[in-house]
Amino acid sequence: MGNIMHIEVTSTDPAAAAEFYARAFGWVSEPSPHLPGYLTARTGSGTGIDAAIMDRRYQGQSTILWIAVDDIEVTLAAVEGAGGERGELHDLPGVGRVGYVTAPDGVVIGVKQAA
After folding, report:
1. Cα dist. 113→19, 42, 67, 75, 94 in Å?
2. Which ranges of the chain would DSSP assign to H, the alpha helix?
């Protein structure tokens, strides 16, 4: 079973969005070393999940949930078997293997296999 482990919020102005989330909810954001226009956001302590704020040029959907998976190739096959579509995979050093899939209704979902 895949657990939701992260969300991405997209924006045409990630810096302004980060400022909004900081002022409204106390999120602490910093630029990602992997991708320009992408900020990681710590959303607080406790049992919740952290987030990211990224430039909408990467994905047009306003919010993207990320699901942790044990085997990304098995997950991609299951997505396709369920009528969804797979996207490209990327290896992020020290993070793992990541990619986007699309559900039959067009919703984009991130999948991540830990390093």
Report:
1. 30, 21, 9, 10, 11
2. 14-25, 72-81
How do 85-92 and 108-114 pair as beta strands? unpaired
Q: DSSP strand E in the chain: where? A: 3-11, 28-31, 38-42, 51-55, 63-68, 85-92, 96-102, 108-114
Tens digits of per-residue pLDDT, 45-103?
877 788 999 999 999 899 999 999 999 999 999 999 999 999 999 999 998 999 999 99
* Token pair 């797979």: residue: 86
Place of tokens 């959303």: 43
The torsion angle over the Cα atoms of residues 11, 16, 19 and 20, rounded to 10 degrees, is: -60
